[in-house]
Structure formats: structure tokens, C-alpha cells
Write a structure and sequence with these properties.
This protein is about 40% helix and about 15% strand. The protein is of the alpha/beta class. The strands form four sheets. Strands 3-2-1-4-5-6-11 form a seven-stranded parallel sheet, with helices on both faces. A two-stranded parallel sheet has the order 7-10. It has a two-stranded parallel ribbon with strand order 8-13. The chain is globular, with a radius of gyration of 22 Å.
Length: about 350
């Protein structure tokens, strides 16, 4: 059946790439990309509509185009470059924007499928966490601020929409931190630092998702119309110390009481915004179970967490002086140097 797909957040890397991807899917006739800021990249056939989803006018966009599938990718950690009111727009776009979009979808009889981006950060990060989170588990320490709290509120509004429109399959994808050669994210910013500040005494287990696998998961969700909430993450985990060794980056252990000062310094230097939420993740880690996505959606990520991290490091050219392959070459290089310097007589 022909589809008219509306994708929010096309200014962002993930939203723009997905809008271009879904336009080539069988049965899709139109893709409408919506954002308040102008796209930084070509949309290649996607119809861009400059619209702020915080404004009730989004309802006219959906109704006039008879949109049947809405993919909500605006929610994210930070406001994109060029977004109006960047100091507060991330929170407003995440929560108020979602409320307005859901109200518009509720009124539109043409809407027959809704896919919403969320995050595994809804589980929080604390020393009381289980080894692996499943979708039905509650956080041991609920998120109190930032992107994680926004996502918890968003999911609450989405559940309310699902009750009011039981005829619309609603799929919520909880993405693990996304890494890859091109996508921007706070985690990518962290691993791009020349040194990695860590919390003294902790070596958290981390789980990632490759940017290409995130796109695949969204495509599967649109195609299957399978309602529910799903953890979307790569197989396997990496300890933070293992990730640092793969990068060849030195780590700087910092007492937990001082990590906030380090974050402030990085923020002032324009290196990154090391949020309290990210500090908790880099302290306690987080691992999720992905069996439900495999069984119900049929989604299997193509890359493991380790493979995702390695592709991210290669694509960004982040290999430092201390990465294992280079260190492994040191004995051979020293031996070669000594042999070349020996005299012919020995």
C-alpha cells in the first residue's frame, strides 16, 4: 500500500539520513521532512517543510498531506545547530513538541502508524541497577533531568496516545548510545577528546548501536507495524577501559566529587558538554536485553558493540599513539632500528 511518511527532526544526521532512506522503500510515494531549522544536507527528493512541531500548525501539515506514517526523530540530547532558542529548545522540542505532534496525530484519521525514537537512558544508571535491563523493568533510580527525563515523559505521552488511538500501531525504539563514522552525539564527542576523564574506581560496561543499525531498526519498525517498546542495541559490551585502549587514548581518573569541575572545564573550552546524565553512565554503565526486538520485530543488528566502536574510531581517525596495534609494532620497529644501525662487521 502506498505510504506518505512524515519524518520529524530531518535537520539532524539520523533524521536526514532516514528520510532519504525510507523514500526508496517499496510502496512509499512521498516523504515529508519537518524541522524548524534549515537542513544542513541535501534531502534528495524528500519534501522539506519548515515547521516547528511545538506549534499546533503541525496538524495542518499532517492533514493536508494525508500522512499515514509518522516517524518522530526530533527527540534528542541537544538542540541542533541553527535551532531557534537553543538554550531551551531541546527540552521544549522533546516534550512540548511531542505533545503537539501526538495531538495532531490523534486528530488525523489518515495516520495509521507511529514510530517514536527513545533511549535506553530511561533506565537511568545507578549502583543498584541489574546486570541487564529488559523493556518492562523500571529504573532503580529514575532520571531526574536532561534527555533521560525528557524520554521518560515522552514515553508517557506516547502511551496515552496509544490508549486514545488503539487503531494506530505505536512502536517505541529505545536506542543505545549511537556511534558511527558520521553521526554526532555526546558520546562521540567524549571519545574524541585527547584524553578521557573517568570516574576514579569505576570501569563501566557500555553498549552501543551503529548508526547504520539505527537506520535499519527504524526501517523495520515502519515496515512491520509491530506495536510495543523495544531495546535497540548491538550485541556485546565494552568496558570503558577497553574502549580507551582501542582508541589509544590516555585516561585520567578523577574523584567523583571533582568530575563536575572537569565537565565545567570541558564546557568552557568548547570541547563538549559532559552532562550529569553522561557522568552517571560513565560511572555505572548500562546494558540492555534485545531479545524482544529480535523475536517480534525481526531486527538483528549487523555490528556488535566492539565492531561499532572500531568503525567509529576508524571513520573519525581517532587512533592515538597508544592503541594496541601500534604498541604491538614497537618491538619489531626497535629491532629493525637496531639492525640498521649495526656496522657491517657486527
Amino acid at each position: 500500500m502506498s505510504k506518505v511518511v512524515l519524518v520529524t527532526g530531518v535537520t539532524r544526521d539520523l533524521g536526514g539520513r532516514f528520510a532519504r532512506l525510507i523514500l526508496r522503500a517499496p510502496g512509499v510515494e512521498r516523504v515529508i521532512g519537518v524541522d524548524a531549522a534549515e537542513p544542513r544536507h541535501e534531502l534528495d527528493g524528500v519534501e522539506f517543510v519548515p515547521a516547528d512541531i511545538r506549534n499546533p500548525m503541525i496538524a495542518k501539515v499532517i492533514a493536508s498531506a494525508a500522512v499515514d506514517t509518522v516517524v518522530h526523530l526530533s527527540p534528542a540530547e541537544t538542540a541542533p545547530t541553527g535551532y531557534p532558542g537553543t538554550a531551551t529548545s531541546a527540552k521544549e522540542t522533546n516534550v512540548i513538541g511531542t505533545m503537539q505532534l501526538l495531538a495532531a496525530c490523534q486528530k488525523a484519521p489518515s495516520v495509521r502508524n507511529l514510530v517514536v525514537r527513545s533511549t535506553t537512558a530511561v533506565y537511568g544508571a545507578s549502583p543498584r541497577d541489574p546486570a541487564i535491563f529488559e523493556e518492562d523493568m523500571e529504573p532503580r533510580v529514575p532520571p531526574s533531568r536532561g534527555w533521560a527525563k525528557d524520554a521518560v515523559e515522552i514515553e508517557g505521552y506516547v502511551r496515552g496516545f496509544a490508549r486514545r488511538r488503539p487503531d494506530v500501531p505505536v512502536t517505541v525504539l529505545r536506542f543505545a548510545p549511537i556511534l558511527g563514522p558520521t553521526i554526532s552525539s555526546p558520546m562521540a564527542d567524549y571519545f574524541s577528546l585527547p584524553f578521557l576523564p573517568t570516574v576514579l574506581g569505576y570501569d563501566p560496561r557500555l553498549q552501543f548501536l551503529h548508526e547504520d543499525d539505527a537506520l535499519d531498526a527504524l526501517s523495520v519498525a515502519v515496515a512491520t507495524h509491530e506495536p510495543g517498546t523495544y531495546n535497540i542495541a548491538a550485541d556485546g559490551v565494552l568496558a570503558l577501559s577497553q574502549a580507551a585502549r582501542r582508541l589509544g587514548r590516555p585516561v585520567v581518573p578523577v574523584p567523583s566529587r571533582a568530575i563536575g569541575v572537569v565537565g565545567q572545564g570541558l564546557r568552557r573550552a568548547g570541547a563538549m558538554d559532559l552532562s550529569a546524565e553522561q557522568v552517571r553512565l560513565l560511572t555505572h554503565g548500562r546494558v540492555v536485553d534485545t531479545a524482544r526486538a529480535r523475536e517480534r520485530l525481526g531486527f538483528v543488528p549487523r555490528r556488535t558493540t566492539a565492531e561499532t566502536f572500531d568503525d567509529f574510531a576508524r571513520g573519525r581517525g581517532l587512533r592515538g599513539l597508544l592503541y594496541p596495534e601500534r604498541i604491538g609494532q614497537v618491538p619489531d620497529r626497535l629491532a629493525s632500528l637496531l639492525l640498521t644501525r649495526r656496522s657491517p662487521d657486527g
